[in-house]
Design brief:
The structure is a single chain. The protein is of the alpha+beta class and 319 residues long. The chain has 2 domains: 2-182, no CATH class; 252-304, no CATH class. Helices cover 16% and strands 29% of the residues. The chain has helices at 117-122, 125-128, 142-158, 190-198, 252-259, 298-304, and strands at 2-12, 19-21, 26-28, 31-33, 38-43, 48-53, 63-68, 73-75, 87-89, 94-96, 99-105, 108-116, 168-169, 181-182, 185-186, 264-272, 282-289, 293-297. The strands form 4 sheets. The protein has an 8-stranded antiparallel β-sheet, with no helix packed on it. α3 packs across α4. The radius of gyration is 23 Å and the shape is globular. The termini are far apart.
């Protein structure tokens, strides 16, 4: 299976595009680019146009434009594990296996990385679980990396977030993927590579024999969230997490302005899931002000204020 992941920087249409380079020669559609040089792809409003430069990521004088129908960026040969011979996006300094291809995503141009599943996982697993865990307990910690590999593979295979051109994205909104290297420093690790190889092809299946979208987190707060097909379960081990208990300060004026309720007065938690301390995760919350109130879900409130989760409770409110 090959995976398509929405990558890298976001560029407005008609923009200058993102420079791509490599220590080996590569192609952008039908346009050849010499090793050490760079190319960028721009959507003109009706066609894809390619510009090149001999100055690499330092940019410089453009050559082109050259019109291409399919602007897929491909290296001349398989780079193996040599990150310098992979494709590098200059804007984020990351090197990628497989191919890169800009696509129209609404009013933006996004870069899509296409590569085999296990190659993709090599850039995911060490960013979701420290590869050093593999050394714990005289090597018994490899089981944790193997579990992460199976979970990440299952999640990616079950995803279909941006059809038809990408299955998933590269941020915490999906699962974190950073390519093979960041600013020349490898992201991949031999221990997580081994965990991926020893579990290759393994995924979690539900009772209907479908691949499960196995969500995971670094901290549950003490109870996992229900995924719909499975119940929430208690997680006593989370008490060791630095994110088990957290505090965030919110500005009263900002709260009032965002929800249009006049002068902010208080937050009222209307419903919780009842699992864990302080009543558990917030299901609905009311923002009360001098001229009205607004009721939203706990997850929406957490998203609005970049909270760690929807498991929170208000303290220190105005009298």
């Amino acid at each position: 299976m090959r995976l398509r992941s929405l990558e890298g920087p976001t560029d407005p249409l008609m923009s200058t595009g993102s420079w791509i380079t490599s220590a080996q020669s590569f192609m952008v559609g039908t346009v050849p680019v010499a090793k050490g040089a760079a190319a960028r792809v721009v959507w003109s409003g009706s066609t894809w146009q390619v510009f090149t430069t001999f100055h690499g990521c330092a940019a410089g004088n453009d050559y082109g434009p050259f019109t291409v129908t399919t602007p897929t960026v491909t290296t001349a040969t398989d780079p193996g594990d040599d990150t310098t011979r992979m494709l590098e996006i200059c804007a984020n300094g990351r090197s990628y296996r497989g191919t890169l291809r800009p696509v129209l995503h609404g009013t933006f141009v996004r870069m899509v990385n296409t590569l085999p599943m296990d190659s993709y996982l090599r850039g995911v697993v060490p960013r979701e679980s420290p590869a050093s865990w593999g050394d714990a307990g005289g090597g018994r910690g490899m089981a944790a990396l193997q579990a992460q590999a199976v979970a990440a593979r299952s999640y990616a295979q079950a995803e279909d977030r941006y059809p038809p051109y990408a299955k998933t994205c590269d941020t915490t909104a999906c699962q974190v993927y950073g390519g093979a290297a960041d600013e020349g420093v490898p992201i991949e690790d031999h221990r997580s590579d081994k965990a991926i190889a020893t579990t290759t092809g393994q995924v979690r299946l539900d009772a209907r024999n479908k691949v499960v979208r196995t969500e995971f987190s670094s901290s549950t707060g003490g109870w996992t969230a229900s995924g719909g097909l499975w119940p929430a379960v208690r997680d006593d081990g989370d008490s060791q997490s630095p994110l088990h208990t957290w505090t965030t300060k919110l500005d009263s004026a900002a709260l009032a302005g965002r929800y249009g309720v006049g002068t902010f007065q208080r937050l009222v938690v209307l419903a919780q899931n009842g699992l864990g301390a302080q009543g558990g995760r917030v299901k609905t919350i009311k923002i009360v002000g001098s001229t009205g109130s607004r009721t939203i879900s706990g997850s929406e409130f957490a998203y609005d204020w970049n909270l760690n989760s929807d498991w929170f409770f208000p303290v220190g409110q105005p009298k």
